[in-house]
Structures are given as C-alpha cells and as structure tokens.
Amino acid sequence: MAEVSSAFCTSFLPKFPKLPVLPNIHGFAASSRASHRLTRCSISAEPMPSGTSSSTIPWGCEIESLESAFALQRWLSESGLPPQKMDIRRVDVGERGLVALKSIRKGEKLLFVPPSLVITADSEWTNTEAGYVMRSNSVPDWPLLATYLISEASLRDSSRWSIYISALPRQPYSLLYWTRAELDMYLVASQIRMRAIERVSDVTGVYTDLRARIFSKHPTVFPEEVFNLETFKWSFGILFSRLVRLSAMDGKVALVPWADMLNHNSEVETFLDYDKSSRGIVFSTDRVYQSGEQVFISYGKKSNGELLLSYGFVPKEGTNPNDSVELSLSLEKNDKCYNEKVDALRKHGLSTPQQFPLQITGWSLEMMAYAYLVVSSSDMRQRFDEMAACAAGKTKSRMGINYPELEEQTLQFILDCCESSISKYSKFLEGGSPLDPITANVQEANRRLLLKQLAVALCTSERRILFRAQYILRRRLRDIRSGELRALTIFNGFRKLFK
Ligand SMILES: C[S@@+](CC[C@H](N)C(=O)[O-])C[C@H]1O[C@@H](n2cnc3c(N)ncnc32)[C@H](O)[C@@H]1O
C-alpha cells in the first residue's frame, strides 16, 4: 500500500528549516524577465523574453519552450522511468504541467520515479573534489543541495543531470526575484513583505557563509564566476519551488525530476512520497481525471502569501481553502504592565508585535490569548503567564482560556487591529501606486505590471479575510452589547417594580 504522506511533510517546498546554517556560524536573493499574463485560474510570474534587468544564469530554459521538457521526458524513459499515464504539455495553469493521456481513476498510483533518478544530499558529485570538500565541512542539506545544483549545472554535458537542469526554469518564480524597492512598493500592506525580505537576507547569508568558510579556501574548486550570489539565488529559487520532503524516507529532501512538473491545486489533497512497495516516488490521485485534463498535486496547505513567496503565483480569489492573512498584534507602549507582559511573552518565545494567522473561518485560540494579555489590566497580572503560554500554543486545554469579563474589550482590540490592517490594504488597492517609477522600457513596464497584478491579487485575497473577520467581530460585539443592554433594561424594570 502506498504510504502517501499528509500535508506539510511532502509538499513542495518544505518550510525553510530554521535557517540551514553551517555549523558554528550564524545566519544563513530580484529583478528579472517576466511578461504578464493572467491565467484562467491563477496568476503567476512568467519569464520575459531576454532583456530587462535580467538574470545572468547561463543554464536552464525559458519556460515557454517545451523542447527541453520533451528531451527530459525522453532521457527519463531511457534512464528507467516506467511508461506514464501523463505527458508534459503547455497548460492553462502553471505554464508547463502534466496532463492525463487516458482517463485516470480516483486512488490510482502514478509516477513511480525510481530513487536512482532523484537528487538528494547523498547524490554523487560529478566534481568529486567539490563534493568531498562540502561533505567534510558537514554542510547541511539545503546549502549542500544549492551548491550541488550549481556545480552540476556548470559542468553542462559532463553532468548526468544536464538534461534535467536544461529543463529547469532559468529564472524560478518567487519573491527572491523581486527587488527590495518592489517588495516595499507592492507588498506594503502584507506581512509577506517581511517574510520575503528575511528570505532574501537568509539566502544572501548562506552564500556569504559558504564563501567565507569554504569557497574562499578552495577558489579553484569553487570559482567565483560560477559560485556567486546570482547563481545561489537561482539554485535556492529552484529548491524553494521544487524540493520535496519524503516522509517515508525519514523526511529526506529531494528534487524529483518529472514529478516536479506537477502544478499545485489548493483543493487537491494528494502529496508526493516514496512508496516502499513499488520502490518509487508516487502519489495517489484523490479524484478522477479525463484524458487531456491537467493532473495536480498539493504543495501543502499554504496561504496565498506563502504560495507567492515560494512559487511566484497567487491562486484565483476564493479558491484556496487554506488561505490566511497574518494579523499583527502588539502591546500598547503606554501599558503600565508593559515590561511584565513582555517578560511573560519572552518566557514563552513570543514578542511584541507578534503575527497570528487569520483565516476566513476565524482566528486561533492563540491570537485570542495574546489579545487577552494586551487588554488585561494590572489586577490580572497573576494571569499574564497563563495568557502568554496559551498565546504560544502551550496550553493543555483544547478550549484555550476564557475571561468573559475581558471578552468585549478583547474583541474590540482585535477589531481595531483588523481595521487598521484593512485601511493599509485599501490604501494600496484603491490608492494606486503613486511611487511607481516611470520607465520607457516596455519589458520592464510589463514586468512591473505583472508584479503589481500579483500584489493586487494577494492583497485582495488577504483583505477579503480581514473583511470577514471584521463582520464577525462587529456582530459579536453588537450581540454582547445588546445582551448587556437587555440585562440592564430588565434590571431597571425590576428596580422600578420594587420602588
Ligand atoms: C514544481 S514546479 C511545477 C512545474 C512548472 N509549471 C514548470 O513548468 O516547471 C512549480 C512552479 O509551477 C508553477 N505553478 C505551480 N502551480 C501553479 C498554479 N496553480 N498556478 C500558477 N503557477 C503554478 C509556479 O511557477 C511554480 O513555481
């Protein structure tokens, strides 16, 4: 039986692990070529014909061209990939994708990519010296794989992966390719902006660490013309958008050629994993596909912001049941108990401000607990620790904590935070971008148009969730207040009766 994993474990792009740094060091990349086109189901960044602030990567392909994808398909078949029920085609969603060649049943196992055709941290290096140096420095999986990909790519036809690498996008789509000014201008309202800035800085940090600790000591093995920030931005972009975590292989991360031609659909619930019985990477379909239909998998239960961050696309509004927006809550600076509350938060690994995910279905117990802490006064100080622990998700009760006396004030606080966030989104969405620099370059103008479309799609979906929360909160507050009013009217009625 297939051991198909659940959500996060096998999804494309596992969460960037607490940055894959080299031992004993801390720390751990945006301009481009992108034409604009709105697909029917989602919006994604596509490469622009050469020109514009382009990447200088000499390998990979322009994704519009299927030639390299067909070559990949031929090479994989000759190298042991069994006959497939799917074929690489140009598709409406995701540029290239896998399309059913015949009808496929629900629950059918597909792919069967043998481990010999998979790239992992254990793969053999064509440049054995480079592999030896990296392994003897105990470089963790992510930086190791990023370096491996560059090393193999630079060796062109001498690498066994040359046909695979030629079919990879020359410029993977992700926020790594947005400039800081673009992130600031287009994602000003969204918390994804900070996540993108951190990611760029993490990738830069990893490259800087590798250069300082390893590359600079072995310049003939790792020449700067090949191993530089630009190539690392490419390889990390590939890893972010194509790496899979295989839970049946003890969580090993891998690049799985062919399987990585599958596009994501947020309503699909099937993930890639290693199947011990067939000894291959498979997935089981969760629905029927007719011949000619594109087959999808899930990259994990990700919000639209996370999908934009790692994969460079935003699903069509309202189609992602896992969508959420990060709401930022913070302690009031003039709170008399500010320091005590900060200490309680710190003790449980939280800070101020702190972000919490808000979904269309509502908010978490953690967010409510944090808001309780924000609004509570000094006479609740013995409860601060309990509130902070619950905000950190450390409470044992599934019901969380409940302070009816703080309910109204807490909901009002969350409503104020939602409204302040909504006004930032509305300013961006309705105010246009007056700061948009004017450019005479058509390609650059197209690229900016695309980034703006992506940002508008993201911000519209995030604001929609906030609007929904605003509606729920207002109704709850109205009910609380009208309940109080009714109680007061009854009380006054009794008072008159007894007078
Ligand atoms: C694992 S690859 C899938 C194969 C890819 N379409 C290709 O041609 O190489 C992930 C990339 O596919 C694209 N993609 C996947 N799902 C998508 C979707 N639902 N809408 C738009 N683009 C998608 C994004 O560009 C993403 O970075």
Automatic annotation (TrEMBL):
InterPro entries from the UniProt entry: Rubisco_LSMT_MeTrfase_plant, Rubisco_LSMT_subst-bd, Rubisco_LSMT_subst-bd_sf, SET_dom, SET_dom_sf, SET_RBCMT, SETD3_SETD6_MTase
Residue ranges of every copy of the SET domain listed in the record: 84-300
Pfam families reported for this sequence: Rubis-subs-bind, SET
A GO MF term: methyltransferase activity
Biological processes, Gene Ontology terms: methylation
Signal peptide as annotated in the record: none
Highest taxon in the source lineage: Eukaryota
Keyword Amino-acid biosynthesis tagged: no
Positions of substrate binding: R242, D260, Y274, Y299, Y311
Keywords, alphabetical: Methyltransferase, S-adenosyl-L-methionine, Transferase
Sites where the protein binds S-adenosyl-L-methionine: R242, N263, H264
PANTHER family for the chain: RIBULOSE-1,5-BISPHOSPHATE CARBOXYLASE_OXYGENASE SMALL SUBUNIT N-METHYLTRANSFERASE I-RELATED (PTHR13271:SF123), UNCHARACTERIZED PUTATIVE METHYLTRANSFERASE (PTHR13271)
Name this polypeptide is given: SET domain-containing protein
Organism in which the protein naturally occurs: Dendrobium thyrsiflorum
UniProt lineage: Eukaryota, Viridiplantae, Streptophyta, Embryophyta, Tracheophyta
